[in-house]
Amino acid sequence: MSATTVMLVDDHEIVRAGFRRLLDNAADLQVIGEAATGEDGYQLYLESKPDVVVMDLSMPPGVGGLEAINRILASDPQARILVLTVQECEPYPSRVLQAGAKGYLTKRCAPEELIAAVRQVAQGREFIAPGIRKELDGKGASKLEALTKRELQVFTLLASGQSVAQIADAMFISQKTVHAHRANILGKLGLKKTSDLIHLAIRHGIIEA
Fold first, then answer.
1. Which structural domain range is residue 182 located in?
2. % pLDDT > 90, the chain
3. At what angle do helices 65-75 and 92-99 cross, to 10 degrees?
4. pLDDT (tens digit per residue) in 159-181
């Protein structure tokens, strides 16, 4: 039986190296490609058509994980994508699963859990970490659910330290539009400034302190 082919998309080279070593040590799994951005991940998917894509969500600047998922599934509705991220809180899990990803794991997962998830997703079955399932079952608790898809993207980029100019370039929108999104985000979340937004992102595990 041929090995299940896997593609890794994560902007941290050391993280990719660790995951590659782990997956390649499983006799039935083979990592055939790596990408550091959502855009590169999308292009590499079109070229290599792996059985499973292991995708991070936070890859600023440029195309983020959620947008890359949407692009891949638009080109191949049968694509099997497993999200592996630090982002544990809503609305990220539900947005990702609504987009069509098959699985959701956090980077705190045990090595054997990642291997099991890749195998299950390769078979076309869903794999959601227990902690994420709990978060989905308690849906509605996070203020972030009030944000639109575009606002959530801007929120994530702001929280990761991107400037308004960088976000405008990455998203192909004007700086004025970014400022408008930022104002809407702060209003919806009941915050006053970007530093408050960063603290909220840290509390929710969206970014690491």
1. 143-203
2. 47
3. 10
4. 888 889 988 888 888 999 999 99
